[in-house]
Design brief:
By secondary structure, the protein is α+β, with helices and mostly antiparallel strands. It has 2 domains: 5-72 and 95-177 and 268-346, FAD/NAD(P)-binding domain (3-Layer(bba) Sandwich), CATH 3.50.50; 180-267 and 351-385, D-Amino Acid Oxidase, Chain A, domain 2 (2-Layer Sandwich). Helix content is 39%, strand content 29%. It is built from 13 helices and 20 strands. The protein has helices spanning 12-23, 36-41, 50-58, 63-68, 88-92, 101-115, 164-167, 235-245, 248-253, 297-318, 322-349, 357-372, 374-385; strands spanning 5-8, 28-31, 47-48, 70-72, 74-78, 83-87, 96-98, 118-120, 124-129, 136-142, 145-151, 153-156, 174-189, 199-203, 206-214, 217-225, 259-273, 276-277, 280-282, 288-289. It has an 8-stranded mixed β-sheet. It has a 6-stranded mixed β-sheet with strand order 8-2-1-12-19-18. A hairpin with a 6-residue loop joins β9 (124-129) and β10 (136-142). It is globular. Bound molecules: flavin-adenine dinucleotide and 3,4-dihydroxybenzoic acid. Flavin-adenine dinucleotide (FAD) binds next to α1, β13 and α10.
Length: 389
C-alpha cells in the first residue's frame, strides 16, 4: 500500500487531519487500533473553543454542530461562600460550544466515508521506519497479515499510549510531566442539566464539575483519590457526593437518574518535545496531556492539526518545507500556554490530600480575587475560550 500521509490513530486528531488533507487533495490512510464502535463509545471532551469550531467548519463537518450544539457565553466558579460568573461574551466577545467529542468523531467518520478514505480498524503491532529518509513506511498487522504502508510523511495521532512518540529515540526526546494525586470520576445521565452554564466547584471535600451534552443529557465529575475503583461507586453514592460539593441551591434542584456511563480518569500534565522527528509529526494527546480542568485536551489537538495540515499541504503540493520545519516550535508555543492554564485551574479548584491550611486559603483568595477583579476574570476568560491561532 502507498499513500502521501500515513495517519496512526483514528481519534479526533487523526480524523480531522485526514479530512482537511483530503479536501486539499492530499492522500491519507488511517490506521486505528480499535473498532469504530469503541472509538465512538468513549465519553470524553464536551467543550469546544471557537477556534476548534472554526476548524470543523473549514473541514466541512460542522452542519450538525451548527444545528445542535449549544453556545455558552459564560461559566461559574464556586466555593462554599462564593459564586463567580465568568462572562466570556462580555469579557472577550466570544463563547465556547457544548458539543461532545463523540459527536465530533461521529461527524468526522461520516465525512471521511463520503471522501472514501481508507481507514483500517483493529490494526496491531504498528512500527514506523525510515523517518530520516526521503520516504518512510509503516508496518502493521491487519486481518492476520503483516502489511506495509509506504508514505511521504507519518502523522502520530495515536494518543498518549500510542507508538508514535516512543519511535522518537529517547536521547532526542524531552519529556516534562506532572502527575496529580487524584482522578475525576465522571457520570453521564439522561437528566436535564442542573444549571444553564457549567459550574466548576471547589469544596472542602474536593472538586466537582457540573457539565452537559444537551438539554436532557448531563455530565458530572467529582475529584476522587487515585486508589478509588469505579465499581465501588454506586450511582447513589456519586449523586450524594456531587450534591455535597455544589452550591446548596444547585444541589436542591438537581435531577438525578441512572448512569449511562461512569469512569475514572487520572489527571496529568505532560509534554514531549520536539513534536517532529524527521518525517514523523506528533499531534494531540500523542505529544501532550493536560488535566481536564481547563477543557483543553481536544482543543489542543485541533490547534496542532491547524498548524500541521497547512504545513503538510505545502510540503506535498509545492515542496515548500518551511511549514513542516517550524511545526513543532509553533505548536509547542500554544501547547505550553494551555498547559499553564490547565495547571492553574487544577491548582485553584482541587484539594490535595494532606495539604496544609495555607493551600486552602490560596484557593479561596484566588476565587475572591476573581470575584472582585474584572482583569482577573478577563485573563481566565481569554484562556478558556481559547488563545488565538
Ligand atoms: P485520542 O482520542 O486518544 O485518539 C487516539 C487514537 O489512536 C485512539 O482511537 C486509539 O485507539 C488510537 N491508537 C492508540 N494507539 C494506537 C496504535 N498503536 N496504533 C493505532 N492506533 C492507535 N478535552 C477538551 O478539549 N475538552 C474537554 O472538555 C475534555 N474533557 C475530557 C474529559 C475526560 C474524562 C477525558 C479522559 C479527556 C477529556 N479531554 C477534554 C481530552 C480529550 O478527550 C483528548 O485530548 C482527545 O481525545 C485527544 O484526541 P487525540 O485524537 O489526540 O487522541
Ligand atoms: C467537560 C469536561 C471538562 O474537562 C471540562 O473542563 C468541561 C466539560 C465535559 O465533559 O463536559
Amino acid at each position: 500500500m502507498k499513500t502521501e500521509v500515513a495517519i496512526i490513530g483514528g481519534g479526533p486528531s487523526g480524523l480531522l487531519l485526514s479530512q482537511l488533507l483530503n479536501r486539499a487533495g492530499v492522500e491519507t490512510v488511517i490506521l486505528e487500533r480499535s473498532t469504530r464502535e469503541h472509538v465512538l463509545s468513549r465519553i470524553r471532551a464536551g467543550i469546544l473553543e471557537f477556534g476548534a469550531v472554526r476548524m470543523l467548519r473549514e473541514a466541512g463537518v460542522a452542519d450538525r454542530l451548527d444545528r445542535e450544539a449549544i453556545p455558552h457565553d459564560g461559566c461559574f466558579l464556586t466555593d462554599e461562600d462564593l459564586m463567580v460568573r465568568i462572562d466570556f461574551k462580555k469579557l472577550t466577545g466570544q463563547h465556547v460550544t457544548v458539543y461532545g467529542q463523540t459527536e465530533v468523531t461521529q461527524d468526522l467518520y461520516k465525512a471521511q466515508d463520503v471522501m472514501g478514505t481508507t481507514i483500517l480498524h483493529e490494526v496491531s503491532d504498528v512500527t514506523i521506519h525510515d523517518l530520516d529518509q526521503a520516504t518512510s513506511h509503516v508496518d502493521f498487522t491487519h486481518e492476520g497479515e503483516r502489511k506495509r504502508l509506504d508514505c511521504l510523511f507519518v502523522a502520530g495521532c495515536d494518543g498518549f499510549h500510542g507508538v508514535s512518540r516512543k519511535t522518537i529515540p529517547e536521547g532526542k526526546r524531552r519529556e516534562h510531566e506532572r502527575v496529580y494525586p487524584f482522578g475525576w470520576l465522571g457520570l453521564l445521565s439522561e437528566t436535564p442539566p442542573c444549571n444553564d452554564e457549567l459550574i466548576y466547584a471547589n469544596s472542602p471535600r474536593g472538586f466537582a464539575l457540573a457539565s452537559m451534552r444537551n438539554e436532557n443529557l448531563s455530565r458530572y465529575y467529582v475529584q476522587v483519590p487515585l486508589t478509588d475503583k469505579v465499581e465501588a461507586w454506586s450511582d447513589d453514592a456519586f449523586w450524594a457526593e456531587l450534591k455535597r460539593r455544589l452550591p446548596f441551591e444547585t444541589a436542591e434542584r438537581m435531577v438525578t437518574g441512572p448512569s449511562m456511563e461512569k469512569s475514572i480518569a487520572p489527571l496529568r500534565s505532560f509534554v514531549a518535545e520536539p513534536m517532529r522527528w524527521g518525517n514523523l509529526f506528533l499531534v494531540g494527546d500523542a505529544a501532550h496531556i493536560v488535566p481536564p480542568t481547563g477543557a483543553k485536551g481536544l482543543n489542543l489537538a485541533a490547534s496542532d492539526v491547524h498548524y500541521l495540515h497547512a504545513a503538510l499541504i505545502d510540503a506535498v503540493k509545492s515542496g515548500d518545507r518551511s511549514g513542516i520545519d517550524t511545526y513543532s516550535e509553533r505548536a509547542l508555543m500554544r501547547v505550553w500556554k494551555a498547559m499553564r492554564f490547565s495547571w492553574q485551574m487544577t491548582m485553584m479548584l482541587h484539594r490535595f490530600e494532606g495539604e496544609d491550611s495555607f493551600a486552602a486559603q490560596m484557593r479561596k483568595a484566588t476565587l475572591q480575587h476573581l470575584s472582585q477583579s474584572e482583569t482577573a476574570r478577563r485573563e481566565l476568560a481569554e484562556n478558556y475560550i481559547g488563545l488565538p491561532y
